[in-house]
Every structure is written in structure tokens, then in C-alpha cells.
Amino acid sequence: MPNGQSHESGNGQLDSRRFRSVLGRFATGVVAITALDPLNREPCGLAANSFTSVSLDPPLVAFCVAHTSTSWPKVRGAKVITVNVLAEHQQHVCAQLASRGGDKFAGLRWTGSPGGNPVIEGALAWIDCAIEAEHMAGDHMIVVARVLQLDTHADGGPLLFFRGGYGGFVEPG
Questions:
Q1: Strand, helix or coil for residue 10
Q2: Is 171 exposed, middle or buried (0-12, 13-18, 19+ CB in 10 A)?
């Protein structure tokens, strides 16, 4: 099929494997979104690679969460959530927070952000936010959050997701 033509399944929908393959060519950073569960004050969280800055005035960020996430209801119940920008050596953190069930924070070291949420040891930066809006978008929810406080945390390169795998970034130079 020539370049520029779409690959559709028999019902006129884009083939999901093709969609992932093509969009997988866009490298993204990986974040851990954390909070303290308001019911039991235990740390909770999830991993996301769909994170972006949205606005400088007011300061807004956004990320996407699958409707099927069992962690999101716990995280979203908190008044403040924290976005941790993961470092290239933290693929295990991403895998642990992306897993279903169990203690997602077992073996993870963290300190509290000013908002009281987990800032994972070794994360490059943290951003305390308040949820501003949620928008239904297919099988995901787009969450827009107002930045309350933020800071750098550790040095190093970012954890990147590209073509279905994880890696780092080599600085030119």
C-alpha cells in the first residue's frame, strides 16, 4: 500500500496494531503519578507515558489514564497528586506502578512532596498538582491538572518509551 494511505480493518476502523506501530515512533517520557490514598493514607500510583505541559498561565499539565485503571480512582481521590518524572534507570519503577494488584510501592524508596505525596527516590523532578478537569476520550480519560509546586529532584537522563521499548537519551556533545 503506498505511503499516505490508511490501513483499515474490515469495519472502516484503523487497525489498532498499525496505530500503535506508527504512534510508537514518537518518543515519550515516562512519569509516575502518585498520591496518598485518602481512605487509608497508603501510597498509591500509576505509570503514564502520555504526559505533557499544557499552559504557562495558568500553569497546567495533562496526562491520560485508561478507563480500566484500578489505580486511578485511588489517586484521583486525593486533593493533591504528584507527577514524578522518571529517570532512565527507573524502568523497574514504571513496571511496578503499571502492574495490577499488590503493593506497588514495595521496595520503592520515597520522600514526601510539599503536598505530602510520594516523590520516588531517583526521579528527575516532581510536580504537585490539583485536578482541574477530566475529559472522556475514547478508552482513556484526559486529565488536566493545575501545577501547585514543582522542583527538580535528581540528575541524569530521562526514561524514554519508543517503539514498544524503554531507553535513555544520549546528550550531544
A1: coil
A2: exposed
Q: Which helix (H) or strand (E) holds 94?
A: helix 91-98
Q: Which phi and psi angles does 17 have, rounded to 5°?
A: -65, -40
**Structure-model confidence comparison of residues 9 and 116, the more confident one:** 116
Q: Which of 150, 151, 152, 132 is nearest to 142 (CA)?
A: 132
| pLDDT given at position 143 | 97
Distance CA 81, CA 33 (A): 7
Find where cell 503514564 sits: 48
DSSP state of 30: -
Tens of pLDDT along 68-83? Answer: 999 999 999 999 999 9
3-state secondary structure of 110: strand
Closest CA to 69 of 143, 154, 166: 143
Radius of gyration of the chain (CA): 17
State the maximum Cα–Cα separation within the chain, in Å, rounded to a whole number. Answer: 56
Give me the mean pLDDT over the 84-95 stretch.
Answer: 96
Question: Residue 49 is placed in which grid cell?
Answer: 507515558
pLDDT in tens, 92-116: 999 999 988 788 999 999 999 999 9
Residue-wise pLDDT for 133-144, tens only, equals 999 999 999 999
Residue 8 carries which side chain, given as an amino acid letter? E
* Side chain identity, residue 82: T
